[in-house]
Hints:
Elements: H1 3-8, E1 23-29, H2 36-47, H3 51-64, E2 66-73, H4 74-90, E3 96-101
Antiparallel strand pairs: 1-2, 1-3
Amino acid sequence: MDAQDQQEAILEMEAVQVEPPHLYRVLLLNDDYTPMDFVIHVLQRFFAMNKERATEIMLRIHREGQGLCGLFSRDVAATKVEQVVGFARQHQHPLACVMEKN
């Protein structure tokens, strides 16, 4: 390749706008069977909440039917849901955990 061919082969950089990834809400849903203490334990263990914050969220779940545990990327949210549901089943509780696009 001669010098002129090399100059023609230089690629120009193109500016590309990349949007941030969508976040997903992870929610716990109320049921009539899972003990409140277990829900608090789940919130502390899987969502790194202190006891006071976990208690607030547990009461919101109890009163309003659902409570927000956090906002996460899709993969992290899916992992959290899987972990919580698996842990609840392991302890024979029907606790439901879901994710939805924010």
